[in-house]
Amino acid sequence: MSQKKNYCVIGLGRFGYQVATKLNEGGKDVIVIDKNEEKIEKASKIFDIAFKADATDINSLVEIGIQNVRTVIVGVTSIEESIMVCANLREIGVKDIIAKANNDIHKRVLKTMGIARIVVPDIEIANRIAVQALYNIGIDIFSIGDGFSWVKGVVNNEAVVNKTLEKLDLRVKYDATVIMVQRSGKTIFPPAKDTSLMIGDVVTIMCRNEKIKSVVKLLNVEDIDND
């Protein structure tokens, strides 16, 4: 591999394939690796670089040149193989590793190896559904732990239109912070205190979990079950 690539995805199960596809659609340079020949044959029709290789073999990774990749995402299903792959990546000097863990035990093992960015998809999805059900709302909510969540919703409340973030004063009133505003295909990040909200804006807000319902009502009163 002569040219440095942005990302490498190891393991083309549902998680790995979805991550690789989204990165590819976002215009990123992506290398995909799997030991299954059928998966690689399918992937080679979509991704520019697809290797059939066993990532538990450190020599295979070195030959491919993974040490030159900026970020490696490990989506290997087998816990044993996942640990071996992450150990190999650490040994050859890959600094930015994102690993999928099957459960909390798997996550703890990866963490002790120095893998800082670990996701447990099933748990994260379950938490997201639980929070949505708890607050009777259908907009996007992403738990970020320690009692905080990101709330992403569409502004559909005339009461906040044309009011600046400074005037809305979400930090004091709702213990919340507007992280990003998306409008007409453009992203306002970070938004300034004089940024005004408009109908149709997609707003991402970080807030405490107990404030989620109030924040959603502020953005879009139609997404609240008032019963």
Order of helices and strands: EHEHEHEHEHEHEEHHEEEH
Major β-sheet strand ordering: 3-2-1-4-5-6
**Total beta-strand segments:** 11
Largest sheet descriptor? 6 strands, parallel
Number of helices: 9
Summarize the structure.
The chain is α/β, with parallel strands linked by helices and 227 residues long.
Secondary structure elements and pairings:
Blueprint lengths: L6 E4 L3 H12 L4 E5 L2 H7 L5 E4 L5 H7 L6 E4 L4 H13 L4 E5 L3 H9 L4 E3 L1 H14 L5 E6 L2 E7 L10 H4 L1 H5 L1 E8 L2 E3 L13 E7 L3 H8 L8
Parallel strand pairs: 1-2, 1-4, 2-3, 4-5, 5-6
Antiparallel strand pairs: 7-8, 8-11, 9-10, 9-11
Note down, in words, how this protein is organized:
There is one protein chain. This protein has helices at 14-25, 37-43, 58-64, 79-91, 104-112, 121-134, 165-168, 170-174, 212-219, and strands at residues 7-10, 30-34, 49-52, 71-74, 96-100, 117-119, 140-145, 148-154, 176-183, 186-188, 202-208. The chain has 227 residues and is of the alpha/beta class. The strands form two sheets. A six-stranded parallel sheet has the order 3-2-1-4-5-6, sandwiched between helices. The chain has a five-stranded antiparallel sheet with strand order 7-8-11-9-10. Helix 2 (37-43) links the parallel strand 2 and strand 3 (49-52). It is elongated. The model is unreliable at 223-227 (pLDDT under 50).
